[in-house]
Design goal:
Blueprint lengths: L3 H24 L2 E5 L1 H6 L6 E4 L4 H7 L5 E5 L3 H12 L3 E4 L6 H13 L3 E5 L13 H9 L3 E8 L2 E3 L7 E3 L4 E6 L11 H24 L7
Helix pairs in contact: 1-4, 5-6
């Protein structure tokens, strides 16, 4: 029963307040989207949206108009993120590398085959930061859906002291949102090929990260 009551209350209150505030908060920001040509290359079908964890607060808001199924950690903290995602119109499956990951991946494969876009944090729920895990590549290999790198940079933001440096754009800031070149993955990858494509995704995301933050005159966020 430890903190059970207040945890349940906070699950009702915090996601509601967060989404209500961010709708107002982000509406004050100027958003410029880059790489639309990459998004158009894959608009005929579902994609695996792949991004670094630091982007999560704004990214779910940015893609709110799409039908997205997101993988969210099965932890207690992940429940807040799951509820925020749902209030923004997304569906979620729960799991991580250490808890329920296999079942979550199977559910994401079903979602892709049913025509939904999928969102997956490339560096996972615990990192290391900006080191890609294999999940996006596994999904792409099983379904034929391309992996679409995406992330954002901002001229004014708050960086938190978490493992990934989670960032939140400040009101009235400029947000530059970037799509990267889609990664097409062949079916039935062997282990050594899986590692090859995992490294390629990590390379593309980090090159996109460097490009995005160079727009703000920074090496990193």
């Amino acid at each position: 029963m430890k903190d059970g009551f207040w945890y349940k209350v906070s699950l009702q209150v915090i996601p509601f307040v967060f989404v209500w505030l961010t709708r107002i908060w982000f509406s004050t920001c100027r958003v410029v989207t880059h790489g639309q040509e990459y998004r158009r290359q894959v608009e005929a079908g579902p994609v695996v949206g792949s991004f670094w964890h630091y982007t999560i607060f704004y990214l779910f808001y940015h893609v709110r108009a799409d039908t997205v199924v997101a993988m969210v950690s099965a932890s207690r903290d992940g429940e807040y993120i799951s509820r925020v995602a749902k209030k923004l119109g997304h569906a979620t499956v729960r799991g991580s590398r250490g808890k329920g990951g296999g079942t979550a991946v199977k559910n994401l494969i079903r979602a892709l085959r049913a025509g939904s876009h999928v969102a997956l944090v490339a560096d996972g729920s615990q990192g290391p930061a900006r080191e890609a895990q294999a999940g996006s590549i596994v999904l792409a290999s099983h379904t034929g859906a391309p992996v679409l790198p995406m992330l954002w940079s901002c001229n004014r933001y708050k960086r938190f002291g978490s493992w990934d440096g989670t960032a939140l754009p400040l009101p009235f800031s400029r947000i530059d949102f970037f799509y990267g070149e889609p990664l097409f993955v062949p079916p039935d990858l062997k282990n050594e090929q899986l590692e090859e494509y995992r490294l390629e995704l990590e390379k593309r995301l980090n090159e996109l990260y460097t490009k995005a933050w160079a727009f703000q005159g920074k090496v990193e966020h």
